[in-house]
Amino acid sequence: MRTVLATLTLLWLAAADAAAQAQQVPSRPRAPRLIANLTRTELACRALTTAPWAERVNAFWEGSTLSAALDPAVLPFFEGRTVDVWVVDHKTDLQWAAAPQLVDVRGASSTRTFVAGGFAANVFELDAGTIFGGLDTRLGRPLDIVLDVDRNGLLSSGDWLDGDDTLEGASVLKTAALNGPYAVTEQLFSAGTWLGQDVYYPTNIAQLGPLPLVVVSHGNGHNYQWYDHIGFHLASWGCIVMSHTNNTMPGIATASTTTLTNTEYLLANQATLLGGVLNGKIDRTRIAWVGHSRGAEGVAYAHTRVRTGNFVPQQFSLSDIKLVSSIAPTDFLGPNSSAAIGVPYSLWTGGADADVNGCADCDLCQTFQLHERATAERYSISLHGAGHGAFHNGATSTVATGPCQLTRLETHSVMKAHLLPMVKVHLFGEEIARECLWRHWSGFRGFSLPTTSCLVVDLMYRPRAAQRLVIDDFQTNTATNLSSSGGAVVGTVTGLVEALMDDADTVFTDLATDPMNGMTLAGPGDTNRGIVFDAALGSYLAFDLPVSARDVRAWKRVSLRATQATRDPLTTQALAEYDFSVALVDGAGRRAQLRVSALSMGLSEPYQRTACGVGTGWANEFETVRVDLPALARANPDLDLADVRSVELVFDAASGRIGVDDLALEMDR
Q1: For the whole model, what pTM was predicted?
Q2: Fewer Cβ atoms within 10 A, N terminus or C terminus of the chain?
C-alpha cells in the first residue's frame, strides 16, 4: 500500500507542476532536490482589495503586511486541506538537507485551511508587519515560506516551498531612507590641486573586510563637501565613500579627468592616506561613480574614456566599475561621449531644476538623453519639485522654479531610499533590492519618506537584455502598422505618430505641427524613437506577437513605459494620474484584461511648471508600468498562455494624449 501511495504522490506532484506551468502558477526554477518530493512554487504576494486580489512580489518593507496565496482550483490537492505555514530564514538546499527543522521567524507557525472559491478566497496574511529586518548591513532579510503538508515541523517529502537554492521566497526590507548599523567617520585631506577628498567610512572598519568604493563628483560651482547625505548614509551601510574636488569649469573632459585621477590616487595611496586606515579595506573590484551636474556628465564620460582606451587606469579596470549614476546631468558632449555603454546606469532628474532645466530650447540641459543611451540595466528617478541645488547639501539656493518645491531634506530622503538599493544590487549583489527600483512609487514607496502631496516620483526601469523580449521598441520596422518584432500593430487610437523622441521646436507650447511636443529623450545625433497618439475613451492599440514568441509562460510581466503629453488639452482637462488597461488575447480570441490601477499604477500628470512657451506643464516624464502576468491571466483562467496572439493597450478609463515606448515581456531575477 505504501508503494502505491508513494507512486500516486509522485504522479500527483508531476501533474501539479505541469498544471502550475499551464495555469498561471509559476514554479520556481529547478535546482537539485536533496529532499525528495519537495515542490517549489510561488506563495508570497502583496494582497489587493480588488481583482486580481494579489500581485506576486518578493520584497516587503519592515512594518508592512506579508501575504501568501494559492489557488485550489489549479491545485485541487489543497482544497479543504489544512497545513501548517512557516515563515523561516532562507536556506540553501544543502542547509535544508543538513537541518530540516522549521523555525518560524514570527515566533510560531500558523495554520491554513484552503477553501473552495479559487484564488480570491485563498489570499491570506502571513504577518502584519512584525518581522524584524535584522541588525546587519543587508537591506533585505531573506525568507522562505513552507507549507508543511504532513505538519511534522520539518521540511520533508511532500511539503511545498517558496524559495530556491539561490533565491529567497520573500525578503523583509529595512527602511532604505534610514542610516544603517555602522557609526561613520568622516575625514578630509588634500594631496594637491584637484586632489582634495572628503572620505566617509564605517568607524569599525578595522574589523571589516574589503568594502566597495563610491566616488562622488560634484558639479560646476559646487563643493566636494556638500554630499554628506550620500557619504554618511552609504558608509553606515558598509561602503567607503570619497567625494573629491572636481575641475568642472573648463568642461566635461576635465571633470572626467578629476574623477579618474582621484579614484586612482585613493587606490594607489591607501596605505598612507588618513594614517593608513583604509589600507586593504577598499575592494577595487566594486566601484560606483556618482556625479552631479557637470560632474554627472563627467562620470559618464569617464567611463567612456576607460572603455575606449582614451584613459588607461593603473589601479582598476573597466569591469570594476559596477554602476554609474548621474544626478541632473548636463549633455555638452552628446551621444558618442556622454553614454554609459555596458554598465548599469541611473539618472536623477528634478522637475523644478532651474539650471539643467530640461526646456526644449536647450539640448545640453536635457537629462533624459543620457538615460536613453545607456545599454545595460538602467534606472531613472524623477522628482517633481526638486531643484538643481536640492540634490546637494550646500547652504545655498535649491536653484528651483515651479510649484510645490521640495526641500533638501525631502529630496535627500528620496535619494537615500533609491541610491542605497542601487548600491546594494550592483556592489553587494543583493538582487532583492532591485524591487525598490522598478515597483511603482504609489504602490511601494518606502517608510520614513515625506508625506507631502508635493512629492511625486516617476520611475523608469529597464533590465538587461537577457531578461526581456522586445515586442516593440520602435527602433526598427518604423511603419506605424508593424512592430519592431515583426508583428502587426492595429487599433482605434487616432493621430498615431512614430518618430524621434525630440521636441521639434524650442518651446513646450502645444502645437499641431509638433506631435512630439514635450519629448526630451533624444537630442542631436540620438536615434531613440517612440509613439504618441490620442486615446479616446474606449479606444485600443494592439501589438501582435510573432509566432515564435506566443508562448509567454516563461515570462513574468508585461512591461512598457508611457507618459501623458504635456500641455495637450486631453491632459490639461483632467490633470490626474492616468489609468488604462493591459490585455492579452490568445489564438482562440479569449482575452484577459486588467486595469493598471489595480496594481497601484498609473501615469502621473506632468509637473505643473510654466515658461518654455505658452501653457503649463514641463517635459514629458515617462514611467515604467510592469503588469504581473499571473495576475493578468487570473482575469480569464481559460486564457491560453502558450498561445498569446497579441498584447493590447486598452484606454477604457479616460481619454488622453499618450506616449509609449519599450513594450516588452520581462522576467525578474
Answers
A1: 0.94
A2: N
